[in-house]
Amino acid sequence: VLRTLSTSDDVEDRETEKGRLEEAYEKCDRDLDELIVQHYTELTTAIRTYQSITERITNSRNKIKQVKENLLSCKMLLHCKRDELRKLWIEGIEHKHVLNLLDEIENIKQVPQKLEQCMASKHYLNATDMLVSAVDSLEGPLLQVEGLSDLRLELHSKKMNMHLVLIDELHRHLYIKSTNRVGQRNKEKGRISSLVKDASPVPLMDVTNLSTPRKFLETSQFSTPGSSSMRETSLLEIKEDTELDPEENSTVFMGILIKGLAKLKKIPETVKAIQDRLEQELKQIVKRSTTQVADNGYQRGENLSQENQPR
């Protein structure tokens, strides 16, 4: 309107243009009023719909704002809960570790009694495993427990002296147990010969088939590589049966003793002790064998003299 009026040259043109614009404005108003009358219902519905949409959008914005605030507060609470849960989790691990240590302490307190029982029943492998694991625990995770200092010293001293008992048992089976079998067979043959009234001399005893530790060593030493590996595997797989007599099988018992000495890391001391006592033990074997032969010969002489057959 301003541009149209400003381009006019004089007042009359302006008035003419103004009148024309006013007529056009009035016509537009009339047309608008007619359109409003014609579309009143649709217009009212559109306005109400627009108002409801505006209200819904406003409510949605307020709800979204409230949801954001709630999410932020939840996030803060979750951070607090996460720290609390992490603290509880760490405390749970600590309590579990403490319970395991207490159980281990209770088991270790029973080790001396169980150790005496195993030593009395000569189950040396179980005793060695029990003693080594107990000492490792006392000198490892339980090192800072002051209440176990006396028990630690006691078990450590027993571990230091354990190999002496095993070495004595090994010598007993190497030199005494193995030769006793020969003496027992000699006595049995002597008793049988004494019951026979024949004056023929007692036949010589065949000892070539006796299972002695020396022959066991030779068979494992000069066998083929495959069989020696099987021998080593069988030694590694030796297990102690607590329900059977440990000394029933002398060879297995000596394997158990050697395995126990290996767990105690006393194999060099064992080899040195065997070397040091070898001559003494062999002399004892000769002495015992001489005594047995002399006693057996004297008993046979007594039996023959009683039968009036002094031979």
From TrEMBL:
GO BP terms, alphabetized: chemical synaptic transmission; Golgi to plasma membrane transport; protein targeting to membrane; protein transport; vesicle docking involved in exocytosis; vesicle tethering involved in exocytosis
Classification via Pfam families: Sec8_C, Sec8_N
Exocyst complex component Sec8 middle helical bundle domain ranges (all copies): 246-296
Keyword annotations of the record: Coiled coil, Exocytosis, Protein transport, Transport
Record protein name field: Exocyst complex component Sec8
Protein role: Component of the exocyst complex involved in the docking of exocytic vesicles with fusion sites on the plasma membrane.
Highest taxon listed in the record's lineage: Eukaryota
Segments forming a coiled coil: 18-70
GO cellular component, as recorded: exocyst; growth cone membrane; synapse
Family, per entry: Belongs to the SEC8 family.
Exocyst complex component Sec8 N-terminal domain span: 20-117
